Amino acid sequence: MTNSEPFQIDVSAAQLEDLHARLGNTRWPDELPGVDWSYGIPTAYVRELAEYWRTEYDWRAHEAAWNRHPQFVTEIDGQRLHYLHVRSPEPNALPLVLIHGWPFADFTEVIGPLTDPRAHGGDPEDAFHLVIPTLPGFGFSGPTRQPGQASTERSAELIAALMAELGYDRYAAQGGDAGSFVAPNLGRIDAERVVGVHLNDPITIPAWDEDGSGYSAADQEKLAALSDWSSQDTSGYAGIHSTRPQTLAPAVADSPAGLLAWVLDVVNTYVNPDASTPDEAIDRDMLLTNISVLWFTNTIGSSMRLYKESQQWGADLPNSGVPTAVAVFPGNGTVRGIAEKQNTVVRWSEFERGGHFPSMETPDLLITDLREFLRKLR
Questions:
Q1: Could you read off the pLDDT of 77-93 as tens digits, one per residue?
Q2: Residue 179 CA: distances (Å) to CA of 126, 152, 156, 198, 232
Q3: How far is 200 from 10, CA to CA, in rounded Å?
């Protein structure tokens, strides 16, 4: 018996008007000439996107598109959890949970092909029942209410409980970014039911005494970069999130332009390295839809608690023994030696296009890799 209730996104006209007014009344900072991205995200770029968000972007169209998918909310151990549950028309479909990271991962482009491959030119034997939870502290799951509720460890516990509540006695898990901690942790705490784990660009943080001996030259190069990561100019956001998230929260919760700048500067760090801007790598409306969700739910502040509360960063994580596939995309920092130490890696795929957000940048590659990996584990 499930405790879940159906859910539909319903942003009020007043919320939309408030967003547009705030964007229109933004007090913009000055900007040095010719510095491009070296001082952070260019204000001219943010201004152009903010104006598009205010005057051209159609929230109602994207709200309606999201509402075409079955959505639910439940409460598990006092934490609200929002999720999509899209069942396949194929009776033998394998349940698959898709897990996002920070600030988001939009899986809307993969839902159709994964749940109904027959209708998308694929093999019906590759069908999945999809469960797509919104992590605690994000979006329609709402803010967390107690310290520790936003951690990747806690997210794994809640998702395992959700899958049990939905009656699935065996399932697979896919995750990237923070999801690349949550999905393997599902394998550790729910090993009897998790048949396989698929990771894209998993975050492999070296332990303090990791010397890389025996690693490939490519791994040793990545290990050196990771060891020095905190001194890199692109790591500042994580330092703030993991130490002073509440200090930043009022600025990005009060100003949609500030939210836009902060989120897209991080996104730009990890998308396809060949893209000159985030919306060159990911559809502009898709980016703004996900940023709008953070805005309308006022969860940008609580979403950042994930960094402060998770204990898995840099921990010596045990191997669950669950068969694991790893897909790496251009610009990735994944150290294969660490990934193979922490997971039973049975498939390793390297792609020449895309970036850190494959469900948004290269959904075709993600779909194919998932199908091929899980075909043997059904």
A1: 999 999 999 999 999 99
A2: 23, 8, 9, 10, 23
A3: 32
